[in-house]
């Protein structure tokens, strides 16, 4: 029955004269997303985007399109030549299928008159089509319910053709990837940073990632875990450039020369600086972290102040006010959770102090850093960093 998908977008609709830029980007992103399963005709009409499909692939295609940022919903639909009688027959056919498949007892017809020259208004169309459907359905158990129907059949009489659809698959919304600059994410193997990366990418931001490890003190499996997380994110974000940075020398220097309780916050400031320097060379305009207020010792208000003071680049923290339960829910939805909870030793826990400072004072942290060759350690770490491209 279905021969087309309607990809509906949200915020793009209020972009005024720039809307076509976002629409065209969204079309390219949908085509890119679908490349893995085939070549599809993706095109636009006023206010929406279409993808030609058939009964054998429409659901698979819809599941891929819903992952494209900017799309708020995907409707499998029937598109036919412009003919009002054909519109009524198609509505009847779709309702009959819904009754058979889903045991529907009540329905509603919602109409849209795209062709303003048509003799009926949208409301008159709904009444007329509803009457036709009831008369020809020959099923006394099925009734009209305009307030809370089991299914709503939407009928569109447009300038070029007719459309009939009954359901919408919810998508993630946001803005098309690549329309809001680029940021670099501090990607660990935990639950939070992949979710933070995904949320910022959802706002149209291209993502690169930097991962810090302490090989050989941490094993290669921890790096593989991060590669797998980047791979999952690339389903939504496209290929991700992943920078691998070994911070073992930095952590050793901190452990040897600074107070143990300041180890975590000092390490964090090094990571931020390194991410910023790499980000500058990669034309990134912001950093992304998975920090949430009070979650761990380095994420207290005072800890975040000390972390922020180490860089001049804006820091995006989309999880800052979220509970762990909320973060886990998103991680499960996007498919990173099961990988994130795999047990591995990361570089942060390797030198973690027994009693980390929870209310660090910036002047004391900066004084502690005078004991370290900050610039030299950062330069060495960046020079020895590697970069790989991760794609799904």
UniProtKB/TrEMBL annotation:
SMART domains: THUMP (SM00981). It catalyses: [ThiI sulfur-carrier protein]-S-sulfanyl-L-cysteine + a uridine in tRNA + 2 reduced [2Fe-2S]-[ferredoxin] + ATP + H(+) = [ThiI sulfur-carrier protein]-L-cysteine + a 4-thiouridine in tRNA + 2 oxidized [2Fe-2S]-[ferredoxin] + AMP + diphosphate; [ThiS sulfur-carrier protein]-C-terminal Gly-Gly-AMP + S-sulfanyl-L-cysteinyl-[cysteine desulfurase] + AH2 = [ThiS sulfur-carrier protein]-C-terminal-Gly-aminoethanethioate + L-cysteinyl-[cysteine desulfurase] + A + AMP + 2 H(+). It is found in: Cytoplasm. InterPro entries: Rossmann-like_a/b/a_fold, ThiI_AANH, ThiI_fer, ThiI_N, THUMP_dom, THUMP_ThiI, tRNA_STrfase, tRNA_sulfurtransferase_ThiI. Pfam families: ThiI (PF02568), ThiI_fer (PF22025), THUMP (PF02926). Residues 59-168 form the THUMP domain. Transmembrane segments: none annotated. The keyword S-adenosyl-L-methionine does not apply. It is an enzyme of class 2 (transferase). ATP binds at residues 186-187, 211-212, 268, 290, 299. Pathway: Cofactor biosynthesis; thiamine diphosphate biosynthesis. Keywords: ATP-binding, Cytoplasm, Nucleotide-binding, RNA-binding, Thiamine biosynthesis, Transferase, tRNA-binding. One of its GO terms (molecular function) is tRNA-uracil-4 sulfurtransferase activity. Its EC number is 2.8.1.4. Catalyzes the ATP-dependent transfer of a sulfur to tRNA to produce 4-thiouridine in position 8 of tRNAs, which functions as a near-UV photosensor. Also catalyzes the transfer of sulfur to the sulfur carrier protein ThiS, forming ThiS-thiocarboxylate. This is a step in the synthesis of thiazole, in the thiamine biosynthesis pathway. The sulfur is donated as persulfide by IscS. PANTHER family: TRNA SULFURTRANSFERASE. Belongs to the ThiI family. This is Probable tRNA sulfurtransferase. It comes from Peptostreptococcus equinus. The gene is thiI.
